[in-house]
Amino acid sequence: MAETDWDKPDETSVEARLAAEALIVDVEGYEGPLDLLLTLSRTQKVDLRRISVLQLAEQYLAFVDQAKVLRIELAADYLVMAAWLAYLKSRLLLPPDPTDAGPSAEDLAAHLAFQLERLQAMREAAARLMARDQKGRDFFARGLPEDVMRLRRTVWTASLLDLMQAYARIRTKDDFRPYAMDRVHVYTMEQALERMRGLIGYAGDWTDLVTYLPEGWEADPARRRSATAAHFAASLELAKRGQIEMRQGEAFAPIQIRRRPDA
Amino acid sequence: MNDEAERSLFAAPVMAEQERMVEAILFATAEPVTVAELVSRLPLGCDPAEALAHLRRRYEGRGVRVVKVGDAWAFRTAPDLGHLMQKETVETRKLSRAAIETLAIIAYHQPCTRAEIEEIRGVAVSRGTVDQLLEMEWIRFGRRRMTPGRPITFVVTEPFLDHFGLESARDLPGLKELRAAGLLDNRALPGGLTEPDPDEGEDVAGQSELFED
Amino acid sequence: MNDEAERSLFAAPVMAEQERMVEAILFATAEPVTVAELVSRLPLGCDPAEALAHLRRRYEGRGVRVVKVGDAWAFRTAPDLGHLMQKETVETRKLSRAAIETLAIIAYHQPCTRAEIEEIRGVAVSRGTVDQLLEMEWIRFGRRRMTPGRPITFVVTEPFLDHFGLESARDLPGLKELRAAGLLDNRALPGGLTEPDPDEGEDVAGQSELFED
To answer: What is the pLDDT of residue C116?
Structure first.
């Protein structure tokens, strides 16, 4: 067991100890369990296709044990891999169970070997790719490009139908009376402002806003609504200018205004 | 053989190689390169001036040339191929409503003054609109009116007829036909408006002017 | 003489002239130019593909070369002259080992999902790694896989090919050998034990898609 090895250094060669230490020290440097397994497999010094997965599983489990002894926090995926390898190891060691319908231990081992070989192949491919001549380092593009001038030309178009419709539109437009607002029953804010400006000088005390409505605008509901809105807007304007003050006791209560004492 | 190999270890590269080097440097550098700079970048003992002369000859008559820019050298497109460095994109756009209405009035009422167009459209005609139609060569100036101010008139052109597939402006459908074609409400025309028909327009003189040239 | 002048009014320019034109266009830009773009910029009736073949031969062994990048063509300096260009050398951001491996996996397995990259590397792919490669425009999103979850795939780009001097992704070093060795197969874990792989069982489709675009 790894523990024993660790406790009795005399029993292990210095070389093996150094190797083990290197692994432990580098634990953060591995990019996951597969990366670690690939590194461990190198110690077998054989073609990855002929690697002993059983031996590899033992190496990995020993590594995990050592990490535990050293209280190195191992990420969950390392432990998952350890559990899986322990399972694989037991399957590889036991005679195959004829009633087991699942994949054989040999299949699982072969797949692990494939994964390692594929990772190794991708690492080599990456290295070969990076070793290629690279633009901006080994070969270069034109340093002084002459830009293509882009000319934009607009072609205007219209169809005969457009033309005829346009003409028809012009010749018939007099048939339509443009929409105009009926202004007879509208009291504008400008009018109200003009009117209130003349009256406000007399409003030393709080006065109901409705009393400002002009004659002939109180009775008809439409006219009353328009005049009230205009006077209210005009009051706001005057209040903004600091000429009057406004108040309202509660919602829907009459609105009262008065001249500002200092205005 | 051995001699030569040995010599090349110490001597400058052969001229053909120097030429390649100058070619690559001129190509890749972001600004024109002086001979002094070439000297500093080529291996010791090179003669960039001579390499440049060779390179220059090599590119004579090619699509790009080695040209002198101040006291430096650069590759430039051959002047006769400058047109290849332009890329024209054509964008097709519909005429604005103002332009199409102005055009329609000119087509139906030609020869037609600006004042007449404005009267019919009920709004001022912007200079830009008329200029655009003139530039497109869909309208052109006609004769001046023999009225006070001698205003200039506008008429439609041959390209206009081509574009709209008309043999003459007389082929433009009249209001009756527009109505029959459903382009107009079947509503009585407001009083006073004459049924416009390019053929029987009041301006007989104008019509006769139409295809004069 | 007269005959020729007349002919040239109607026919495409002679091949030597077409070659000059392609030369000028390729020389003018730092980006690879597609044959389609050449067709659109050359006079009607030109054959840029043939002109390119002539041009490529003409520049063989010169200081600059005509190289193919995907469907496009560009002039690039000869790689053996890189040492003259220290001034032009651009310091590229050093890629992490994870980024280099991820890039290689995408290049060799494209189109390739994130899950496949993670399966091959045996670790999660960080977002930053993919983002960096996307930002460098060395990879881009490919089609979605028609598998549950419709995962997005990654493929390498033309700038990637340009950077590594590859004509196409087929020219990746060792691609044939890797494929022959079965190392590019998306082989599933027997029995589907452990390590769930959403793309499992879909490897055949994935491989057939390879290098499609």
So the answer is: 93
**Mean pLDDT for the stretch of residues C41-65:** 94
pLDDT of residue B182: 65
Chain C residue at shortest CA distance from B82: C24
Domain covering B12-79, topology = Arc Repressor Mutant, subunit A (1.10.10)
pLDDT over 70 (residue C10): no
Q: Does C84 touch chain A (CB under 8 A)?
A: no
By Cβ distance, the residue of C23, C25, C78 closest to B62 is: C23
Q: Where in chain B is the domain with CATH 1.10.10.10?
A: 12-79, 97-211
Q: Is C77 in Cβ contact with B30 (below 8 Å)?
A: no
The CA distance from A22 to A2, in Å, is 15
Question: Which of C161, C193, C195 is the mutation pick for testing A, counting most A CBs within 10 A?
Answer: C193
Helix (H, G, I), strand (E, B) or coil at A75: coil
Question: Mean of the pLDDT values across residues A225-250?
Answer: 88
Which residue in C44, C47, C24, C17 sits closest to C35, CA to CA?
A: C47
Lowest mean pLDDT among A123-127, A249-253, B33-37: A249-253
pLDDT exceeds 80 at position B93:
yes
- The answer to whether the beta carbons of residues B26 and A142 sit under 8 Å apart is no
Q: What is the CATH number assigned to the segment(s) C97-211?
A: 1.10.10.10
